[in-house]
Amino acid sequence: MNSFLSSLELRRSENALYVRFSGVHDDYLTARYAEALEQFCQAMQGKAWARIVDLRQWSVTAAQSQQLMVALLKQDLTRGLTLEYVLWSADVMGRWQIERTLKSLNVENTDEVFHPTEDENEALAGLMEQGFSVNFGAATRYESRCWKVPQTPEPKS
């Protein structure tokens, strides 16, 4: 039996979030992220905020949840999100889908909110240039283990 460890790491400053996903999609981690985001948005009270989402160690496998992802990002825009950098590697699975989603959301807005990049320093500098704090505090980390049970070959009849 094989297992895969997935994790979510959250850090926050006075007006920005740094979110790092690693592993594979997991409902438990998604729920923890949603809770943390809700608390952060309540603390921001409608003020502008920014986010860096690090997907460099993430296996994006959510083609079927494209509409949900778009709806959640649109909701974040109504709750004050004004700038987001998405960190990814050149070989991240699902990169085309992320890119398409970010482009379509940018087209719908008067300001370009979403910026994909492979460079963490570019993302940090981008937040600072727009007046967001990058003094992220200690990380809160959540982990989840996904078990993959090997399939037994079916007997041939």
Query: Which CATH architecture?
Result: 2-Layer Sandwich
The CATH topology is given as Transcription Regulator spoIIAA
Q: H/E order of the elements?
A: EEHEHEHEHE
Q: What is the CA-CA span between the terminal residues? A: 27 Å
Report on this structure:
The protein is α/β, with parallel strands linked by helices and 157 residues long. It has one domain (2-148): STAS domain (Transcription Regulator spoIIAA). Helices cover 35% and strands 32% of the residues. The protein is built from four helices and six strands; from the N terminus they run ββαβαβαβαβ. It has a six-stranded mixed sheet, sandwiched between helices. The chain is globular and about 65 Å long. The protein starts with a strand and ends in a 9-residue tail after the last strand. The mean pLDDT is 84.
How are the SSEs ordered, and which strands pair?
Blueprint: E1 2-12, E2 16-24, H1 27-44, E3 49-59, H2 66-78, E4 81-87, H3 95-108, E5 114-117, H4 120-129, E6 140-148
Parallel strand pairs: 2-3, 3-4, 4-5
Antiparallel strand pairs: 1-2, 1-6
Descriptive labels:
globular; Transcription Regulator spoIIAA; 157 residues; alpha/beta
Structure summary:
With 157 residues, the chain is of the alpha/beta class. It has helices spanning 27-44, 66-78, 95-108, 120-129, and strands at residues 2-12, 16-24, 49-59, 81-87, 114-117, 140-148. Helices cover 35% and strands 32% of the residues.
